[in-house]
Specification:
Blueprint (H helix, E strand, L loop, with lengths): L19 H7 L9 H6 L1 H12 L4 H37 L5 H30 L4 H22 L3 H20 L4 H12 L5 H20 L4 H14 L5 H24 L2 H28 L7
Length: 304
């Protein structure tokens, strides 16, 4: 799920809607943190903490999730981190002299593939846990989700001007994290890019409520693990639950980011480009090191 060409640090970006699957996947997205190894090596605990925020876990569930998440993390470290490292290297090689829209589309699709693989690997763990959720846990999930959505709705009442200002403040902060400082002329151009972002606040808030109700209804029907697994697959992999309006909005958002990345590429100077490449190269090295740590630990002691 790495997105090295993303403007925002990944730990703060939630690609999926706020379901339990989101919480299980969230802490895999560790780039943008001060210490990749520190966060990754504590990912199991962090993920369970996020789940516990929505579904207060019993001791038995804690133990089962610890084992199941550990298996997913082992797969992720052994199989995916090398892919992420290679993708960063490939991206940086092409990014050194600028990117065409065709190249941006290619990397966008590659990153989508990493997301799908992570979802597919995580679905059995999510399904196993959700099949054990009690009525009290489901009630708590509904309560917390509603409270968080209400808090978010208050923020969405901001005027279009205030929303644009807050959006740009976050945008430029993250841009500077990846590229360094910008001069006034660059900031003016970046403001134009930021203001062009589609404002779908009310739509996503409405969809969030509908998805929560659908998800809660499913859990309250006491479905089998297999039925939950199929629901999660349809929703996050097959995307069969996306209607025409949602598909159109997602398409427009993708076009916005593809066009924005192309525009940003024309604004930055060589020093800023090199700064970005240096930062992402560090992550590439971190991912390889983390992967090698696991591979070393898997070697029998008599062969070390």
């Amino acid at each position: 799920m790495l997105r090295p060409i993303s403007i925002r640090p990944l730990l703060t970006q939630v690609i999926f809607t706020r379901s339990i699957l989101t919480l299980i996947l969230l802490t895999f997205l560790i780039t943008g943190c001060s210490s990749t190894s520190l966060v990754y090596n504590n990912a199991n605990w962090l993920i369970r903490s996020k789940i516990d925020d929505y579904f207060p876990l019993s001791d038995r569930q804690q133990l089962q999730l610890k084992a199941d998440i550990g298996s997913v993390l082992q797969w992720h470290r052994q199989r995916e981190l090398v892919e992420y490292s290679d993708l960063i290297i490939q991206f940086n090689e092409q990014y050194a002299d600028g990117l065409t829209k065709t190249e941006i589309n290619f990397f966008y699709d590659q990153l989508s593939s990493t997301r799908i693989r992570l979802v597919e690997e995580s679905i059995p763990t999510a399904s196993q846990f959700l099949s054990t959720a009690s009525v009290e846990q489901i009630d708590y999930y509904d309560q917390i989700s509603t409270e968080k959505r209400t808090q978010k709705a208050k923020k969405l009442n901001a005027s279009s001007e205030q929303f644009a200002d807050e959006n740009f403040a976050r945008f430029i902060e993250n841009m500077e994290q990846w590229f360094g400082g910008f001069n006034e002329n660059q900031r003016s151009q970046l403001r134009i890019i930021s203001d062009a972002r589609p404002d779908n606040r009310q739509y996503w808030l409405k969809l969030s409520k509908l998805r929560q109700q659908e998800f809660s209804k499913l859990l309250r029907s006491r479905p089998s693990k297999e039925k939950i697994e199929q629901y999660l697959y349809d929703r996050f992999v097959g995307l069969s639950r996306i209607d025409v309006e949602e598909d159109d909005i997602r398409h427009k958002v993708r076009l916005y980011w593809l066009n924005s990345l192309s525009s940003i590429d024309k604004i930055i100077v060589t020093k800023q480009r090199n700064y970005f490449i240096s930062r992402t190269s560090d992550y590439s090295s971190d991912f390889l090191q983390l992967s090698n740590q696991l591979n070393t630990s898997l070697i029998p002691s008599n062969q070390k």
